[in-house]
Amino acid sequence: MRMILTVVAAAGLLTIAAGDAAAYPQFQLSTSAERCSQCHFSPGGGGLLNAYGRDEAGSTISWIDDGALGDGRLLHGAWTPPDWLALGGDYRGVVGYKDPGPGDADTLLFPMQADLYVRPTFGPISITLIGGMRGVARGAEAKDIGIADRLTSREHFVTYEPDSGAWYVRAGRFFPVYGLRSQDHTSYVRRYLGLSTLEEPYGAAYGKYGADWELHVSAFTKPPSASLGIGQDTGAAVYYEKRNEDVTAAYGAQARVTASSTDRRALVGGVYKRWLEDQKLMVLAELDAGAQAFPDTTADARLQLLGYLGVTYMARQGVMIGGVVQGWDDDLLLEQSSRAAAELDVQVFPFAHFEAHLLVRGETAGLDLDQPGLLGMLQLHYYL
Amino acid sequence: MQPPLLATCAVAALAAVTGCVDASERSTDYAYLHAAIIEPSCATANCHSAMTAQQGLDLSTPATCDDLVANYVCPGAGADCANPFGIDVHGLLINRLRATDGLLMPQDGPLPESDIQLIETWIEEGASCE
Questions:
Q1: Quick check: B27 contacting A, CB < 8 Å?
Q2: How far is A261 from chain B (nearest CA, A)?
Q3: Would an 8 Å CB–CB cutoff place B13 in contact with chain A?
Q4: CB of A308 closer than 8 Å to CB of A187
Q5: A371 and chain B: CB distance < 8 Å anywhere?
C-alpha cells in the first residue's frame, strides 16, 4: 500500500510539473483487440483505458502477468471507483541525446507528459476530461513558463453512446479520427498532419461500428482561445476501416479538408494494418497525398505526400522491437523540400502500468545526408 | 501491389519525384511564407505559438511579422529593413535557421534548404510584411 501511495503521490507531483496521447496501434489485431475503442474509451484510441484495456495491459501485453504485478486496474486494484466513474492518468519522463545536424548537440531530461483522466458516466452519456501540464522540452527557456501557464486540457468532450455500442456522437475537444494514432507525437503521421501536441480542435463527430468495419466522421474548428493550444483549422475528416474475416488485416481510407484565413488543404490517404501471426510481425503503413492552396497570395498551390511504414516484431510477451521509415514532402515539385527518417524502437512492458521505450531516430531535411539529425531517447512511462 | 510495398515506394518516391519547379519562382509574400513554412515549423504548441511564445516571439499569425522583422531580421532598424545584410551579416533569423552560432531553429531539426533560401530571398527583397 505504501508503494501505491508513493506512486500516486509521484503522479500527482508530476501532474503539477509537465501532453501526449498514449495509443499503441501495434496492439490492434496482434492481440484480441479488433479496434481501438475495445481497449480505450475514446473512439479513436489513446488516453483512458476501459476495464477490458486495463485487463489486457496487465496480462496480454506485459512480460510478468501474474500476482500483484499483473493487476492493470486503477491503483493496481487497491481502490475501485464506483461504476459510473473511470479515472486514470499517463506520466512520462524522458532522458536522451539530440544532435539536430547543424547546430549544437544537447542532452535531454524533461517530464514529457502528466495527464489525469476523469470520465463520469450517466447512462448513455459520458464526459471525458483530460487535464494536466503541457510538456516543455526547451531547457533553460522552460523556466520562464509558470505552472499556471502550463495547465491545460488537451481533450474534453461529451459522448452519447447507446448500450449496444453500435454508434456514438461526441462534441467538445478531441482529435478527429484520422490515420495511425501513434503514441509518439513526433511521428510524421502526427507531426506533419496537424495531429501533434495540443493541436486538438473543437468539434463534433459521429461514428458507427459494424461487425468488421468502423466509420468516423468529424467536423471541427480552432480552439476559441490561444491558451488552449493551436488546434486545427476549420474543416472535416472522415475515416473508414474494414477488417478481413480472420481479423489479421485492416484497410483504412480517409480524407480531410481544412480552411484557414491563409490556406486551404485537402488530404486523402490510406492505412494498412497487418498482423503476421507466424512471424510475430505487426505491419503498420500509411500513405497520404495532399494539396495546399494559398488563395490570398501570389503563390502556387503545392502537392504534398506523406509515407509511413512500421514493422514491429513481438519478440515475446511484453517486448516489442520495431523499425519505422517515414517521409514527408510539403512541396513535391520543389527540390530539397522533403524530410525522411529511419527509426528503431524497443518497448518493454515489464508488468502492468509500466513501460520503458528506447527510441533512436536518424533524420534528414531536404535529403541532406551530410548533416543528418540524430535523436536517442529513453522514455519511462507509468499509467495510473 | 501490396499496401506495405506501396507505402515503401511512396517513401522512396519522396526522394525521386522532386525538382520540377524552379525555386526562384516561389512567392515571397509573407502570407505564403507564414502559411507554408513559419506556422507549421515555428508556431508549434510548445514553441512560438500564441500560447507559449518562446522568447516573447509569437509567430502564430501573419500579423506578428513586424515583431519578427524588428527583433530577428534587422534589429535596430525597426521594421524598415531594405538591406538587412548590410546591418548584420546574416541577421539573427538566418543565424538561427543555419545554426551559424550553434543554436538551431527549429530546435527539433533544420528547415529544408529550399525553405531557408526562400526566407533569405524574402529578407534580401526587404522583408516586407505585406
A1: yes
A2: 9
A3: yes
A4: yes
A5: yes
- According to DSSP, residue A20 is labeled -
Domain count, chain A: 1
Would you list the domain boundaries of chain B? 27-124
Mean pLDDT calculated for residue range A261-275: 95
At residue B61, the 3 state secondary structure works out as coil
What band does A17 get if pLDDT is binned at 50, 70 and 90? very low
Quote the pLDDT of residue A142: 52
Q: Hey, which residues 155-194 in chain A have their CB within 8 Å of chain B?
A: 186, 192
Q: pLDDT tens digit string along A122-134? A: 999 999 999 987 7
pTM, 2 dp? 0.88
> Which member of A138, A302, A326 has the closest CB to residue B11?
A326
For the ranges A141-145, A336-340, A368-372, the lowest mean pLDDT is seen at A141-145
Q: Do B21 and A333 touch (CB under 8 A)?
A: yes
- Alpha helical stretches, state H, chain A: 2-15, 51-58, 147-150, 188-191
Strands (E) across A45-166 are located at 85-99, 106-122, 125-133, 151-160
Say which CATH number the domain at A303 has: 2.40.160.10
**Interchain contact A154–B (C-beta under 8 A):** no
**For range A144-160, the mean pLDDT:** 83
Chain A CB contacts of B10 below 8 Å = 287, 305, 307, 327
How many Cα atoms are found within 13 Å in the side-chain-facing hemisphere of A291? 5
Using a CB–CB cutoff of 8 Å, tell me whether B16 touches chain A. Answer: no
> Nine-digit cell at B107?
530546435
Question: Complex ipTM, two decimals?
Answer: 0.84
Domain that holds residue A150: 2-383
Contact A271, A179 (CB under 8 A): yes
Q: Measured between beta carbons, which residues in chain A are less than 8 angstroms from residue B42?
A: none
Could you report the per-residue pLDDT of A36-61, keeping only the tens digit for each? 999 999 998 888 999 999 999 888 88
